[in-house]
Write a structure and sequence with these properties.
By secondary structure, the chain is an alpha/beta fold. It is 48% helix and 15% strand.
Amino acid sequence: MKILFMNPFGTDRYNDLIQRILNQAKRSDTKVVVDNLSKGPTYLDYHYYKNFIVGELIERGIQAERDGYDGVIFGCMLDPGVFEAKENVDIPLIGTHEPTIHLAAMLGHRFAVVTNSDKSAPSMANLVRHYGLEDKCVGSGSIRMSLDEIFARPEQCKENTLEAIRWCKERGADVMVAACTIQSAYFMDAYGLSKDTFSIEGLTYLDPNIIGLKMCEVLVDLHKMGISLSRNSLFGKPQDFSISDWHTVRKTFGVE
């Protein structure tokens, strides 16, 4: 099984850490390739920035299928480009937010989401609502650090995340969803990755990188059995409606 994990940033500075974490979590028969975009911002807290990276992200998903990958993960809790890319590929393609919060709802009565910045916290709450789990979520908070600050001060990221875990517990959460892939990676690297990492002060801690990978592995297995994405409505393929229109649009915007 070969899975592409796309960091949707215009930098490779996070790749090695994500690769190390995923290599510890993957199945023995899984090969994970971590990559980043050719250009773009180093963070996506602002919707304006996210708008510029979605096009290349979708194309990387399409190319991954052509290159023989079995599954693709877009590694950001904003789930950028996931719906659009799903329309265009038959292999499993997921973000990290949707699978992580659905697992959180299965592992506890209530969960909380904690992202890196106050700017992103409302977006996380909106996605929880979008995915239909608002009633299970007790709040959306942050560790109040930019990705640049996390990269420069991982120990502070660890301390702020531990404080956030206590915040989740005080609000009645059973599970904390780390709502930033980079924040969580640096937290686990500083805290130490072991079985104890996922149960802290009585709360279950969910890392979206690992949950995204494990869910993708399951979806690849199911896909091979014939259980796949429904094309009945939401994820209907534009190629099936009109292949000529699909090529015309792609040529108009210079992607083929």
